[in-house]
Task: structure prediction
Amino acid sequence: MTHEEHADDAPETPPEEAPKKTKSKKERVLHTRVPAVLEQELKRLAQSWRVPVSNVVRTILEDAVETVDIVGRRAEGELRGAAERLAVERRRLRKMGGRPAQDAPDSSEDEAPRGGEPDSDPLEGALGFTPLVLASEARCARTGRTLAAGEEAYLVLFPEPGRKAFVASDALPKNGEEKS
Result:
């Protein structure tokens, strides 16, 4: 075997002569300034966990990076949902011949929230329902009835980000009953 094949095993190789791929595998030391209060909190936390402060900082940083990644993916999903809703509205406006919304008849009761055909089930794909008290007026996805602020209703949970619907308490599907 050549010297290059044992580069990872060769501690006598000075860092400046080591192949670049070995540098990426090693942990790096970062120096940073932190407020005294934060230093004390980190030390207190490390002591309570009985680990070095550097492990606490590394764990916090790893969690922060992972959280940013998750938030980014959620935001991307919500943006896709918004883009889908805009596409649905654009198609609806084209069907109406481009008339402004205030001149158009209110077709929100006739259309499914995702812009489907009038006969499509507005609860299709729903995962479940969670009870809530409405903070503002909403429309029941099953009956089309206006639900008043302060009224008890159910938020329909969908797997698609950004898709939402509300159902009146008396319009919930019963066991064995189809949703629409």
About this structure: The longest helix spans residues 53-95. DSSP finds three helices and five strands in the chain. The two ends are 71 Å apart (CA to CA).
